UniProtKB/TrEMBL annotation, chain A:
Bilayer topology term: Multi-pass membrane protein
Pfam families per the UniProt record, alphabetical: BPD_transp_1
Species this chain originates from: freshwater metagenome
Family note: Belongs to the binding-protein-dependent transport system permease family. HisMQ subfamily.
Cellular compartments annotated: Cell membrane
MF GO annotations: transmembrane transporter activity
UniProt-recorded name of the protein: Unannotated protein
Stretches that traverse the bilayer: 30-57, 77-102, 123-145, 151-169, 250-270
Keyword Membrane recorded: yes
Tagged with keyword Oxidoreductase: no
GO terms under biological process: amino acid transport
Ranges of residues in domain ABC transmembrane type-1: 78-271
GO cellular component: ATP-binding cassette (ABC) transporter complex
UniProtKB/TrEMBL annotation, chain B:
Keyword hit for Ribonucleoprotein: no
Originating organism: freshwater metagenome
UniProt xrefs under PANTHER family: AMINO ACID IMPORT ATP-BINDING PROTEIN, GLUTAMATE_ASPARTATE IMPORT ATP-BINDING PROTEIN GLTL
GO MF annotation, one: ATP hydrolysis activity
Keyword Metal-binding: no
Signal peptide: none
Family statement: Belongs to the ABC transporter superfamily.
Record-given protein name: Unannotated protein
PROSITE patterns linked: ABC_TRANSPORTER_1, ABC_TRANSPORTER_2
Length: 289, 248
């Protein structure tokens, strides 16, 4: 806020001394961190390498040549996982928002839908994803309904969308409930209807607040698309499994894991940063060291 | 002339606690009614009931001869005529100053964006805030935020302005910039009901002062009568305590 001129200032000798002292302290901390890291990592690696089965493990799990050979197949599989994540993610966003709005509405006409939404969330948040995938993947084709594709990729995606919509709906709903009632009161006292209040005042603030947890769910979604492999979808996990069982060498699993990590680690780093930014924006005292 | 806003025998309780007890009040057009009283005496609840943010347990509220406490009344339409400003400003943090002001005229009154914008800029100019139009609320001082909140309410051209302790969250220096806005509105003939702890200010703007105690108006009259020659012992006691606290 201050607009006074800062250019004429030069640090006092005491301040310069303090800066030197701070520099010494942070150098010492860096050295301690480096020594500690080398010790811990070194111990872990040496335990693995000196273990009696290391030679076998290295050949069956970390066979670099075999890894290179299966890489294209596993990478083709992970492309399926990515497609599932983005197409599924878009559907989840729409369904979850509708569920969250239904659960927070007070409109009498929507009362039955409110109960249905609550029941839906309870069921799909409470049941293990792998069961939902099995039930949808094998149950729906058994119904023999015409018009519903029995494609395993489609059914697997439906199962993941069903489950994740329930999770994400709860995140969005918690965001809606976290907006202070005074915001609603201010909007209503200006004559906005309850729908307008939700649309223009509550929801924009709520969504901003839940972006970091939603990013978290997005990372989980990518990983959990690997579960559709049990239906026979040739995703990264399935591609690795096929190659591993062909040769009894498990390196393809490690390749698949590395591919997942290459995608998820940057995403989780980004999420952490978004959360930190949100925190430092919210309290002006900043982060206490 | 009949009153623009009239309250008859209002009763309001929160579970077992009686907050407004058979309270009646008339607010003639172009006048300012100041509500004073200790915290918890029912001032804020009274304002929230008038704005239909709380439903009353008994009694009637009339605005311009229409009973607005009728459950069949369209509350959104009523609230367009009754603007409320809150102690904690309640600006929308995700919108700029101008967007805060334009929201209701566009969405509620159906004005065009250009029209709402021109009106918003004009109001901001009038209250000396025009250079802040594209700032977000968290970049403004408390006094500026509260002035924007008042402007936001004025953009709907309300018949009555309800001000709920609009200076209580501000430091003494900022209080004045908000009060001068209220003084301007008073001289423009705006009908207002204010809850306040600023007694000096009450003397300046009030046409009538009501002293509330335990949900009822104990004493009501001109500012001079109520604040300087109170007839009721409870009013005298309240003013004495304010005086001891250095607030008078």
């Amino acid at each position: 806020m201050s607009e006074r001129n800062n250019s004429a200032w030069s640090p006092s000798s005491r301040e310069l001394e303090r800066r030197k002292e701070r520099g010494r302290i942070s150098r010492r901390q860096a050295i301690i961190a480096a020594i500690s890291s080398v010790l811990v990592l070194g111990t872990l690696i040496s335990i693995a390498i000196t273990s009696p089965g290391w030679a076998v493990v290295r050949k069956t799990f970390f066979d670099v040549n075999y890894g290179r050979e299966v890489l294209p197949k596993v990478a083709e599989g992970i492309w399926i996982n990515l497609q599932l994540t983005f197409i599924g993610g878009a559907c989840i966003g729409v369904i979850a928002l509708a569920l969250a709005l239904l659960r927070t509405t007070k409109s009498p006409a929507l009362t039955p839908f409110r109960y249905l939404a609550t029941a839906y969330v309870d069921i799909f948040r409470g049941a293990p994803l792998i069961l939902i995938i099995l039930l949808v993947g094998f149950g729906v084709p058994a119904l023999g309904l015409s018009g519903i594709p029995s494609n395993v990729i489609f059914l697997g995606t439906v199962a993941v969308v069903l489950t994740y919509s329930a999770y994400v709906a709860e995140v969005i709903r918690s965001g809606i409930l976290s907006i202070h009632p005074s915001q609603r009161a201010a909007a209503r006292s200006l004559g906005l209807t309850s729908t307008q209040t939700m649309r223009y005042v509550v929801l924009p603030q709520a969504i901003r607040r839940v972006v970091p947890p939603l990013l978290n769910d997005f990372v989980s979604l990518l990983k959990d698309t690997g579960l559709v492999s049990i239906l026979g979808v040739t995703d990264a996990v399935r591609a690795a499994q096929i190659n591993a069982s062909r040769t009894f060498n498990y390196t393809p699993y490690v390749v698949a894991a590395i591919l997942f990590l290459i995608i998820t680690i940057p995403m989780t780093r980004y999420t952490d940063r978004a959360i930190r930014q949100r925190m430092s924006n919210q309290n002006s005292e900043g982060v206490v060291v | 002339m009949s009153a623009l806003l009239e309250l008859r025998n209002i009763r309001k309780s929160f579970s077992t606690e009686l907050v407004l007890d058979n309270l009646s009040l008339e607010v003639p057009e172009h006048t300012a009614t100041v509500l004073i009283g200790a915290s918890g005496s029912g001032k804020s609840t009274l304002l929230r009931c008038i704005n239909l943010l709380e439903s009353i347990d008994d009694g009637e509220i009339y605005l311009d001869g229409q009973e607005i406490s009728d459950p069949l009344v369209n509350v959104d339409e009523v609230r367009r005529k009754l603007a409320m400003v809150f102690q904690s400003f309640n600006l929308f943090p995700h919108m700029s100053v101008l967007e805060n002001i334009m929201l209701a005229p566009i969405k509620v009154q159906g004005k065009s964006k250009e029209e709402a914008r021109a009106q918003g800029i004009e109001l901001l100019q009038r209250f000396g805030l025009s250079e802040k139009f594209d700032q977000y609320p968290d970049r403004l001082s408390g006094g500026q935020q509260q002035r924007v909140a008042i402007i936001r309410s004025l953009a709907l051209n309300p018949r009555v302005l309800l001000l709920d302790e609009v200076t209580s969250a501000l430091d003494p220096v900022l209080v004045n910039e908000v009060l001068s806005v209220v003084r301007d509105l008073k001289s423009d003939g705006m009908t207002m009901v204010l809850a306040t702890h600023e007694m000096g200010f009450a003397t300046q703007v009030a046409d009538q002062v009501c002293f509330l105690q335990a949900g009822n108006i104990v004493e009501r009259g001109s500012p001079d009568a109520v604040l300087h020659n109170p007839s009721h012992p409870q009013t005298r006691e309240f003013l004495k305590r304010l005086h001891e606290a250095g607030r008078l």
